[in-house]
Amino acid sequence: MTDLSSLIADEWQPIETAPKDSTNILVWADGYEWPEVARYELYNNHDIEEEAGEPGFWRYSDDLFADVCEIEEGELSHWMPLPAAPEATGAPAGRAALEERDDG
Questions:
Q1: Alpha carbon of 12 to those of 6, 8, 35, 82, 99: distances in Å?
Q2: CA distance linking residue 70 with residue 79, whole number of Å
Q3: How many CB atoms lie within 10 A of CB 9?
Q4: Are 40 and 21 in contact (CB under 8 A)?
Q5: Is residue 4 predicted with pLDDT exceeding 60?
Q6: What is the three-class DSSP state of 27?
Q7: What does each C-alpha distance from 99 to 45, 63, 88 come to in angstroms?
Q8: Greatest mean pLDDT among 6-10, 69-73, 96-100
Q9: CB 78 within 8 A of CB 27
Q10: Phi/psi at 39 (nearest 5 deg)?
Q11: Which residues contact 25 (CB under 8 A, 6 or more apart)?
Q12: Contact 81, 24 (CB under 8 A)
């Protein structure tokens, strides 16, 4: 059996090297039990940017979670790209699968 942690250990990179273009990525911080999906968002107001001293901020990609939890400055330590989606199996997905089930 393959140890999953050894497969992905080499892909974690320091957070300072993460893309800051709103790309969703996996992030890690001490104290996390599992990685979270987050993205860096730019401030849309120059005054806020100047006050913050940064061009943007890290935000959880799950909007519901992001509404109640903030990522504190300096909290994140590492990141890695999201894995590729699995290949299509030919089975209907999402809404099409539900509609097919209801019609059947």
A1: 11, 7, 11, 11, 40
A2: 17
A3: 10
A4: yes
A5: no
A6: strand
A7: 44, 27, 18
A8: 69-73
A9: yes
A10: -150, 155
A11: 18, 19, 37, 38, 39, 79, 80, 81, 82
A12: no
